[in-house]
Known about the structure:
Largest sheet: 7 strands, parallel
Structural class: alpha/beta
CATH class of the largest domain: Alpha Beta
Helix content: 40-55%
Number of strands: 12
CATH architecture of the largest domain: Alpha-Beta Barrel
Strand content: 5-15%
Amino acid sequence: MTNDGIIDSIELYGKLLELHNENPFKVKAISNAAFKLNKLRFDFQGKSKEEINNIEGIGKSIASFVQELIEKNSAKELDILLEKTPEGVIQMLSIKGLGPKKVSAIWHDLGVESPRELLYACNENRLASLKGFGEKTQQSVIANIEFMLANETKKHYASVEKQLLNVLEFLREKNPTTKIEVVGEFRRKCEVLDKIDILSDKNLNLDLKNIESSIGLPMQINHCETNYFYYEYFKQTATAEHLAKTQFHLLTKRQYNSEQEIYAELQLQFIEPELREGLNEIELAKSNELPDLIEVKDLKGILHNHTTYSDGLNTLKEMADYCQKNGFEYLGICDHSQSAFYANGLKAERVIEQQEEIDKLNAQYKNFKVLKGIESDILNDGSLDYPEEILSTFDFIVASVHSNLKMTEEKATARLIKAIENKYTSILGHPTGRLLLARPGYPINHKKIIDACAANKVSIELNAHPYRLDIDWRWIYYCTEKNVKVSINPDAHHVEGLNDMYYGVCVARKGMLTKEMCLNALGLNDLLKEFKK
Length: 533
């Protein structure tokens, strides 16, 4: 069972217990554990029951539950609840805004047992008449069901990558003389996938059911003659729009020795797989103006990280040591500010306490520095959390929205611009607040936001958490045009979360980000100058 599968099972277990009106204290403990583990993206593989039990807020019973999932791919207590719950009711538990108690009312009082049936009931205005709901809730449920149904067959790139690479390794071991490569969405490193396409130059004769089950997406293996492998590799990687703009249809289908050879024949600069979307990459390639794309090795430091001071799993020193050990020059600590009470946000006295600890750590390090930062909530009126005397103590500030997310584009844009104009804001954090496949994010006028960042010398975050990847990569090129630097930040809540920088780089490359336009590709001294605006 994958890490995501384990966390999903814990979350479902808690919801089913509440749905069936079981012990509320047990429900709360399991729900809190699921929330914490989901935020931490804890890696269960190879971990002992004791290591899992040692995670704060988990406990022995949940550790045993996890161990059972790892060993048996199921858990007895969960199986009992699943057996007495209709599959469609379980699906309704995934609808945003509907907790188990509301789903129970819909199930028992309306007799509705699936999301599609509920959508029909909403269109007949039946949910609005149910006690505790109303017209406004009904409209929200309709929107959330439609969003869920549109995304139910998709997966995050990060949740698929490891398993798929293992499948590839297995296939190559079994077929050592066969060329086998992934093409399509995965090769272009799209942030969300709805299928997996593999190209081989021999017929593999595979039963794909078990492989598809392990990955969670439909898979197709396409075969071609060996002589035409690179022709098909090129063709099956790109979007239809990219192929049309390259005039690929004019090429003679023949043997090529590389994709570089194909682009040369098309009289185009070589275009990296991530860029083959059919946007502006062809025009730039025609004039040989495609930039050198950023790579993980270009990153000099890691900004926007959380510790045990707020809702992180690791201490400040553990995060810093891990970062230094992996060759970085600096680590920016950005625990939650005081308004984020749900995440143990720092009151003013704890800010001072943390900064004193940072000073002590920095006195011990050589060629490495911990920067004093905060993820300051952007309040409803656009102001930053904390008074000026506290804001002025930080080396840098990531300003982010975490509350009152239901905003019009006008309201959200004005709220963000006011925060950007604050003289203490260094980086605008996850600009739309989106969670891929979970919520679309509030609407903003991207051009106005990026223009405001340019005018106020504020960088924009590309939140590298693979469930966010916000700012959307499609706006990175406009950031570059406006000379707004992009900061690739992992929003890490534990040491392993620092490795999410890789996923940030994947989509940054799709947006044509260069190391020159990446904030944390700057060395420490240049970064500090940038923060001083």
